[in-house]
From TrEMBL:
Similarity comment: Belongs to the EMP24/GP25L family.
Positions of transmembrane segments: 173-195
GOLD domain mapped to chain residues: 30-140
Membrane topology of this protein: Single-pass type I membrane protein
Any Gene Ontology CC annotation: membrane
Main location: membrane
Protein name per UniProt: GOLD domain-containing protein
Keywords: Developmental protein, Membrane, Signal, Transmembrane, Transmembrane helix
Signal peptide start-end: 1-20
Annotated PROSITE patterns: GOLD (PS50866)
Annotated localization: Membrane
Amino acid sequence: MNMILPYVVLLLTCLVSVNCIMWNLEPNTQKCLREELQQNIPVIGEFEVSDAPGQTVDYVVTDSKGHILAKRQGISKGKFSFNTESYDTYEICFSSHVPQNQRGITQEISLVTKHGIETKNYDTLGEAAQLKPIERELKKLEDLSNAIVHDFSIMRKREEEMRDTNESTNSRVLYFSIFSMCCLLGLATWQVLYLRTYFKAKKLIE
C-alpha cells in the first residue's frame, strides 16, 4: 500500500489544473489571459515581473461583467487570490506604463495560477489536524477524487444541455424544412393555376 500510494497521488495530481506561463510585455502595452471557471472555485496566482527602471506594471482581475476581483499597481513580485462567484470567464490583464520622456524596454512576466484543491496547503492542514504523513496523503487523495467526480458531473450536465440544444435545433430545422416545402408547393400550384387562367384568357389554350 505504501509503495502504490505515491504513484496514485502522482496520477491524480496530473489531473489537477496548474497553469504556468511566461511572456514578454512590450512597453505601454497590455496582455490579457482568460479562463472559464466553475462557481465557488478558489484561485491563487503568483507572478514575477523583470525589473525595468522607471517603468511600472499593473494587473487587474475581472469577470465578464467587468467586476474587479483583484487589482494592484506597480508590481514586481507577489500573489493574488479570489473566489469565483459563478460559472464565468475570468480575465487577468497586465499593463505596462512608461513615461513619455523615457524609452521603454521589454519586460518578462511569469505567472503561475492554481485553482481548486491545488490551492490547499496540505502540510499546514496536516499540522493543524495533527495528521500523520499517510493520513495527509489520503486526505489529499480524497479531495482529488471528489474534485474529479465533481468535474465529471459538470461535464455530464453540460453534455446533457448540449444534447438538448441539438435535439431542439434539429426539431426546429425539420419544422422549418416542412414549412418551406409547403410554401414551395403552394407557390408552384398557384403559378400553375395562374398561368392556366392567363393562357385561357388569351385563348392560347382551351
